[in-house]
Design goal:
Elements: H1 3-14, H2 16-27, H3 39-52, E1 56-61, E2 75-82, E3 85-95, E4 114-115, E5 118-120, H4 124-144, E6 149-157, H5 168-173, E7 184-187, E8 194-199, E9 201-210, H6 225-245, E10 262-270, E11 290-299, H7 305-322, E12 328-336, E13 339-340, H8 346-359, E14 364-368, H9 374-379, E15 386-388, E16 403-405, H10 406-425
Length: 434
């Protein structure tokens, strides 16, 4: 192992206390989304940190995006450190928002407690630990290889948990992920020693069935929209769900159950609205004249989105052909095309080689069952050389007592820094030592 690589690994190990403190500081800024709290605070914290490392920084508000308001502005930070010579740019992108706390915590969700080598808190693994690891990796790299080629970028972006439209999508639209500007993207989502190449596709739709209101004691004078929706569900059970289960993919999706097409019924609401809090009376006796369902269809790289929509419409048309007085509305509300980076892409082979060097294990290549911000980098930014790799256990995301292992973050910082060495100094990724 070369002297510089050995020095780099020693620098990362020496920064353990700093890595812990940085992660704790990030967790203690409660960037809950929704509604999108303290985005400016965390961006200003990162701004101060990265400016001290010689990065040029920008704080960017995503004006007019979903959720952006004067009370809850959608702030992002992009920091760039230029090398001494022309070359390619490696970008580490982490989202700064975290989901709601939920029930069942035995630790302070925003305490950042360090207990037996684990840092606890909402967002610890998803993904403030990954953000901290990328910063430590860049800092250690700069100390050992100050005269590198190209550029390093680090971003903290908003709203990934609610679609990323006020974060990475907005930055892509503004040209921040243009492939002429950025050549390699690593998203430190919690995949531990695995390289995530992409994700399945998404198609959300609203289905509404209609009826006719009448007195509940004489339902024969009305037409129950909820019963019509029941017929839709029965047809889904009889034909659609079995058809989806039969579709399989060559994508290495995890877990195994997600290697087929799936659909979730997110919600059903029919008839009268739920009473307001504090109301103790009975509902009025009426036949419901409308019913709404939201479906969340996840599809495979081998499927076409037009066919995905046509399958759902086909269910409704079949029910309509068999059921008197059946009428419906079908409204697509959200879609994401599947994406999968080629295993031979430079960022894939480089990160994979660095993982093997640090952990002495060959990494697994996987695809996520759900989406993350790679969808925007691919579709809007036109950047294909993008993966997700970072510290943490994916199953802990959004759970009570979420945590990140300090040893895992140290390993990831080593991997990310060695990848920088390969991509920006030309040193080989393999046989680097750990």
């Amino acid at each position: 192992m070369g002297d510089k690589r050995k020095a780099f690994l020693q620098r990362v190990a020496a920064k353990e206390g700093d890595l812990v403190a940085l992660t704790q500081d990030l967790i203690r800024i409660p960037t809950l989304n929704p509604p999108g709290e303290f985005y400016r605070d965390i961006c200003e914290y990162l701004d101060k940190r990265l400016k001290a490392d010689g990065f040029a920084t920008e704080l960017i508000r995503a004006h007019g995006t979903p959720g952006d308001s004067e009370k809850y502005p959608r702030w992002n930070i992009v920091a760039r450190r230029e090398g001494g010579r022309a070359g390619e740019c490696v970008h580490f992108n982490s989202h700064i928002d975290v989901v709601t706390i939920g029930q069942g915590w035995t630790r302070d969700p925003f305490g950042g407690e360090l207990i037996n080598g684990r840092i606890y808190g909402r967002g610890a693994c998803d993904m403030k630990g990954g953000l901290a690891a990328s910063i430590i990796a860049a800092e250690a790299f700069l100390e050992v290889w100050p005269d590198f080629s190209g550029a390093i970028e680090i971003s903290g972006t908003a709203d990934e948990e609610t679609g990323g439209f006020g974060g990475v999508a907005y930055l892509c639209e503004q040209g921040y992920f243009n492939p002429e500007k950025v050549q390699h993207v690593v998203i430190p989502e919690p995949f531990k020693d695995r390289v995530c190449l992409g994700h399945r596709g998404v198609f959300w739709a609203e289905i509404e069935t209609f009826g006719r209101i009448a007195h509940g004691s004489m339902p024969f004078l009305g037409d129950c929209a909820v019963r019509h929706m029941g017929a839709v569900m029965a047809e889904m059970e009889a034909s659609l769900f079995p058809a989806l289960a039969a579709k399989r993919t060559d994508m290495p999706v995890i877990p195994e159950g997600a290697r087929q097409s799936t659909m979730n019924i997110n919600s059903i609401h029919g008839g009268q609205a739920e009473p307001e809090a504090g109301f103790t009376g009975l509902p009025s006796p009426v036949v419901p004249d409308h019913c709404k369902m939201i479906v969340d269809r996840r599809f495979l790289l081998e499927e076409d989105i037009a066919e995905v929509e046509a399958e759902l419409r086909g269910v409704l048309e079949k029910v309509k052909s068999e059921r008197p007085d059946f009428s419906y509305a079908f409204t697509p509300i959200h879609s994401v095309i599947p994406t999968m980076t080629d295993k031979t892409a430079p960022v894939v082979t480089t990160i994979a080689g660095a993982i093997e060097a640090v952990t002495r294990k060959k990494p697994e290549f996987v695809v996520s069952p759900g989406t993350y911000d790679q969808k925007h980098i691919d579709r809007i930014g036109r950047m294909k050389n993008c993966i997700a790799y970072g510290p943490g256990i994916l199953d802990l995301a959004h759970q009570p007592d979420e945590y990140i292992e300090v040893s895992d973050m140290l390993d990831s910082a080593k991997v990310m820094g060695l990848a920088l060495a390969t991509l920006l100094t030309g040193e080989p990724a393999a046989n680097q030592g750990g």
